[in-house]
Automatic annotation (TrEMBL):
Key words of the record: DNA-binding, Plasmid, Repressor, Transcription, Transcription regulation
One of the Pfam families matching this protein, by short name: Peripla_BP_3
Keyword DNA-binding: yes
Protein name from the UniProt record: Transcriptional regulator
Gene3D superfamilies xref list: 3.40.50.2300, lambda repressor-like DNA-binding domains
PANTHER family documented for this protein: HTH-TYPE TRANSCRIPTIONAL REPRESSOR PURR-RELATED (PTHR30146:SF148), LACI-RELATED TRANSCRIPTIONAL REPRESSOR (PTHR30146)
Source species of the chain: Rhizobium sullae (Rhizobium hedysari)
Length: 346
């Protein structure tokens, strides 16, 4: 069997994929291989004339330092893992994007791992990150099991959780309790007494915290509170929660939604299916302030979580932990701002 052309094709592809080496730069610049290495090592000693020749040769050849190899030699890479379930959905998408931008600005290499919330899925993600010597892990979804935290600590890997609770990790969270209480007071002060909260059965700890805090605050004020929950924390769940809430004999006058996606589904159901007006018949407040909240179709009054601020806090916690691994867990709390639009005007 003649496979000569096939092997020749493979050889050509390998040649095209071959990266420019430091040895090639050294030959073109007329210097030693070690001089090239020192030129691209921060703080290393190299003569100005040598540095100039090396940098000129590197630019001409298109050479870039092999950071992966350096990470292996140092037993640490610049990789930072971002672990999330459905990272493309809602606020989580904007937070993942902000984290990636902040990490790149820091000089890190973000690696997004789209995983589930089971222990096996999270541990598989962690094994990948540890195997690639990631210097830190940031979790956006799911509660990490004890073994996850234990492995991270034994490998000296900082662990930051956002919007989750884990006793031995560093935390960044939104002021869910403060915002939800403020929503209850705002409704009550505007004369609403039949209140409701729209949430989900498969709620994260943040969603559950918002539901509980709103209900407690509203009941303490003397308002009645009904609860509607969809299957998940998304648009379809908003429709499901609305069906439950507005099938009651006494329909709510105002609804607090645990996130904006739920609010969008609820608003569309209330207006398109029930023919009610927002805010004249039903007032609505959401949580997150994703870009769609400002669209003319919704004009949603909502609490703004700033993804850039939360990302910056998370990266600062990573740096804090790398600088001093023995510090106690840190808790950063970012209080959301109420953005007033048309769905509720105090």
């Amino acid at each position: 069997m003649n496979d000569g052309p096939i092997n020749e094709g493979k050889t050509k592809r390998k040649d095209r994929m071959r990266f420019v080496s430091a040895e090639q730069v050294a030959q073109l610049a007329g210097v030693s291989r070690s001089a090239v290495s020192r030129t691209f090592t921060p703080g290393a000693s190299v003569a100005p004339a040598t540095r100039e020749r090396v940098q000129k040769a590197a630019e001409e050849l298109g050479y870039h330092v092999n950071d992966l190899a350096r990470g292996v030699l140092a037993n640490q890479s610049r990789l930072v893992g971002i672990v999330a379930t459905r990272p493309e959905v809602g606020f989580r998408a904007h937070l993942a994007a902000a984290l990636a931008k902040t990490l790149i600005k820091r000089g890190s290499i973000p690696i997004l791992i789209n995983t589930g919330q089971t222990e096996d899925e999270l541990l598989a993600a962690q094994k990948m990150l540890i195997g690639h010597r990631a210097e830190a892990t940031i979790i956006l979804s799911g509660s990490p099991p004890e073994s996850f935290v234990d492995i991270a600590h034994r490998n000296g890997q900082p662990l930051v959780v956002i919007g989750r609770t884990e006793p031995d990790a560093d935390h960044v969270s939104a002021g869910n309790t403060e915002a939800s209480g403020k929503a209850a007071v705002a409704f009550f002060d505007n004369g609403y007494r039949r209140l409701a909260v729209a949430a989900s059965h498969s709620a994260t700890s943040s969603i559950a915290e918002r539901e509980t805090a709103f209900r407690v605050a509203a009941e303490e004020l003397g308002a009645s509170v009904s609860v509607g929950r969809g299957r998940d924390s998304d648009y379809d769940s908003g429709i499901g929660a609305a069906r439950q809430l507005f099938a009651q004999a006494e329909q709510p006058e105002a609804v607090y939604c645990a996130n904006d996606l739920i609010a969008f589904g609820l608003m569309d159901y209330v207006r398109k299916t029930l023919g009610l007006r927002i805010p004249e018949d039903v007032a609505v407040i959401g949580f997150d302030d994703v870009p769609e909240a400002a669209w003319l179709s919704y004009r949603l009054t909502t609490f703004r979580q700033d993804p850039a601020v939360m990302a910056q806090r998370a990266v600062e916690l990573v740096e804090r932990r790398l600088a001093n691994p023995d510090l106690p867990p840190a808790y950063e709390r970012v209080i959301p701002e109420l953005i007033i639009r048309d769905s509720f005007k105090p």
